[in-house]
Write a structure and sequence with these properties.
Blueprint: H1 10-21, H2 23-32, H3 43-69, H4 77-96, H5 102-105, H6 108-133, H7 140-170, E1 176-181, H8 184-194, E2 202-208, E3 225-227, H9 232-239, E4 243-246, H10 253-261, E5 269-273, E6 286-289, E7 292-298, H11 304-339, E8 345-351, E9 357-363, H12 388-395, H13 403-408, E10 413-415, E11 425-426, E12 429-430, H14 431-434, E13 447-449, H15 451-454, H16 464-479, H17 483-499
Parallel strand pairs: 1-2, 1-4, 2-3, 4-5, 10-13
Antiparallel strand pairs: 5-7, 6-7, 8-9, 11-12
Helix pairs in contact: 1-7, 2-3, 2-7, 3-4, 3-7, 3-11, 4-6, 6-7, 11-12
Length: about 500
């Protein structure tokens, strides 16, 4: 028995519109591409997918509105481009209203309200501007029908996202992998407080505690004691931990600092449980997991949305740059091959995201029998190991161009802290022994170029000051990242290569 469309519930209309648009099955297929080896879902990819489906739904609503009001010939390529611009404005409006977060997408009524406000606001703004300049890109009747259809289709996207996120949460694919640092009564109280609501949003893997001979918790959760503070960083890195909750009493300042120093290089959020704290701060000072107040100590440098944007930027701009410089790369490869025997490319182990080792590609700039895999000895002016072609391509940084392949493989970014070799030194000391916060550079992917490089801190690092300045600039970049900042650095890079004097 078929329901009457005229009396159908708005949710049913949204579901019907979504199914007719063919988006539901496409969404389900896309979510399979978001699962990693641990069967966990990538939050940045998931949120970007919601935004992409929103844009498609808005353009589709425009096409349907044109067909209903004008007829079959009312939609062409120009209309697609104009509708795409409107879709971008609506997506930006939704992002500014914090619509693209997992917690927000779990609240369906609020999402539908946000969608309605964003669509109506953008459409009214476009209509107002069109009236002011006396240029009407669409008939008023098309705009009205488009607005209604866009709200329905976007509500359908939100319904699908809400249900899929709920299913992923229940199956454990979208929960945040969490560890608790510190045992005893504080940990027991925290586990009990999180039990009613927190377990739906997190998977507590266990507890780290320095107190030997004690169980990490005697509470009802019977969580596993995973190790001591010495084991914490390695475990977070190898097991993909998302959230770390510290229950060490706040008076134990030295103990807390020891924990944090091991985590500066990792992509992990750190919170201190304020469940039993005597000092109660203003409510705005806390984050809440369930009803448990948490003090924010350290956040991942990029939010889920920012990571998605940066990944898109790397893939799109990286692919365009690779096409643009392909002739130059071919000429460099030919020059390297003609001057000396050996492979064209040189691959070297370097530190990447989360201190993990990656293999970085470069054009070979040294004689094949004199290459230094670990960069234990810095290249200096007039270094006999470097070929004539090598001196030129190192001076102009053309030897770095093959790292565009690392970018497209997802190991590097176009912009970020430069990846250093494992045994790189400033003077006689390893970089990490010179600068205490050195490994904090590895909280984001390394880059082909970076803020330090365009400010003159590239090339030889023969003194502690040079690596200190490079690290300081890298940390400034991480704390102030934006797409515009990346594009600004990319634009400055050719200038810095011409004016720079430190690469040999």
């Amino acid at each position: 028995m078929h329901s009457n469309p005229a009396t159908a519930h708005p949710t049913d209309m949204a579901r019907l519109a979504l199914r007719r648009a063919g988006l539901h099955s496409a969404w389900l297929h896309l979510t399979r591409l978001m699962v990693d080896d641990r069967r966990m879902v990538s939050r940045p990819k998931l949120l970007f997918a919601v935004a992409a489906f929103d844009a498609v739904a808005i353009v589709l609503a425009s096409a349907l509105a044109a067909r209903l009001v004008i007829g079959a010939g009312g939609f062409n390529l120009l209309e697609v481009l104009k509708a795409g611009g409107v879709a971008l404005l609506i997506v930006v409006s939704l992002k500014s209203r914090w619509s693209y977060t997992i917690s927000s997408l779990r609240r369906l009524p609020r999402q539908i309200a946000l969608v309605t406000v964003a669509v109506v606001s953008v459409m009214l703004a476009i209509s107002g501007v069109s009236f002011a300049v006396r240029i009407a890109p669409w008939l008023p009747s098309v705009v009205v029908v488009w607005t209604v259809l866009a709200v329905i289709l976007l509500s359908g996207v939100r319904l699908a996202a809400h249900r899929i996120i709920g299913s992923m949460t229940r199956s454990g694919q979208l929960v945040r992998r969490t560890v608790i640092v510190g045992g005893g009564r504080e940990a027991d109280d925290l586990i009990r407080a999180l039990a009613p609501e927190g377990r739906e949003h997190m998977q507590i893997l266990g507890i780290f505690d320095d107190r030997q001979g004690e169980r990490a918790s005697e509470g009802p959760s019977e969580l596993t004691r995973l190790g001591t503070f010495e084991d914490l960083a390695d475990f977070c890195q190898s097991e993909g931990v998302d959230l770390l909750i510290v229950t060490v009493p706040q008076r134990a300042e030295e103990r807390l600092l020891q924990i944090l120093q091991r985590l500066f290089a990792l992509q992990v959020d750190v919170r201190i449980s304020a469940l039993n704290a005597r000092l109660r701060l203003n409510a705005s000072a806390y984050n809440y997991i369930g009803k448990v107040p948490m003090l924010r100590v350290m956040d991942k440098p990029l939010t889920d949305w920012d990571r998605a944007l940066k990944n898109v930027e790397d893939r799109v701009v990286g692919a365009l740059l690779l096409l643009a410089v392909a002739p130059v790369m071919a000429l460099v490869a030919l020059a390297v091959k003609l001057e000396s025997r050996g492979p064209v490319f040189f691959r070297q182990k370097r530190y990447g995201l989360n201190n993990e080792l990656i293999e970085v590609f470069k054009f070979r700039s040294m004689y094949a029998d004199r290459t230094d895999q670990n960069a234990a000895k810095l290249v200096t002016r007039g270094d006999p190991r470097v070929t004539k072609v090598g001196r030129f391509i190192r001076r102009t940084s053309l030897d770095e161009l093959p790292q565009l392949f690392n970018v497209l493989m997802g190991q590097m970014s176009l912009v970020g802290p430069r990846p250093h070799a494992t045994q790189a030194k400033a003077g006689d000391n390893l970089y990490q022994d010179v600068v205490q916060s050195y490994f904090a550079r590895h909280r984001v992917k390394p880059g082909i170029t970076g803020w330090a490089q365009v400010n003159g801190w590239r090339g030889e690092t023969d003194t502690p000051e040079k690596i200190e300045q490079r690290t300081a600039h890298d940390l400034h970049y991480i704390d102030n990242w934006s797409v515009l900042f990346d594009l600004y650095i990319i634009a400055l890079t050719p200038i810095s290569l011409v004016t720079g004097k430190n690469a040999y």
